[in-house]
Design goal:
Length: about 150
């Protein structure tokens, strides 16, 4: 189950309009930076972008899970965006991305953080959840869906 502090309603956004992978990462960086007093959106963007250079965090089926390690936080922080238009993301299935969950974990990331990434990836493999996230019309609905557990 996802920790309740992982994502809050202000970090879940509906119908975000971006035109590229870069703009998507910038949007996630802005949301994630709000959870960390010493984190600037520019720093978070640089870290997410650096991780993308190692290999795409696109999962397939229109989902991306950009993530990075960062100093200055003691627990994982998440943000989610539902896009109005999918953007190219270099995903393994070559499908554009319209749902993205950004994740920051402490620099001293542990097995628990790897487990969290695995849980998110597993959760997003559920076609029903993807459909519901795409149909959501409010941030509160996105949050409800993300926090549900079967």
């Amino acid at each position: 189950m996802l920790p309740p502090s992982l994502i809050t309603e202000p970090r879940a956004r509906c119908r975000v309009e971006v035109t590229s992978k870069k703009r998507l990462l910038e949007s996630l960086a802005e949301l994630l930076a709000t959870a960390c007093s010493q984190c600037s959106p520019a720093l978070v963007f640089d870290l997410l972008n650096e991780r993308e250079r190692l290999g795409s965090t696109g999962l397939g089926e229109g989902i991306a899970l950009p993530h990075a390690r960062i100093d200055g936080i003691d627990h994982a922080v998440g943000a989610f965006v539902q896009l109005t238009q999918a953007v190219s993301f270099d995903a393994p299935d070559d499908q554009p991305v319209d749902l993205a969950f950004g994740l920051l974990v402490p620099s001293e990331a542990t097995d628990a953080h790897l487990s969290l990434l695995a849980e998110l990836a597993e959760r997003f493999s559920d076609p029903q959840l993807r459909l519901a996230l795409r149909a959501a019309e409010s941030s509160s609905r996105l949050l409800d869906l993300l926090q549900q557990r079967d």
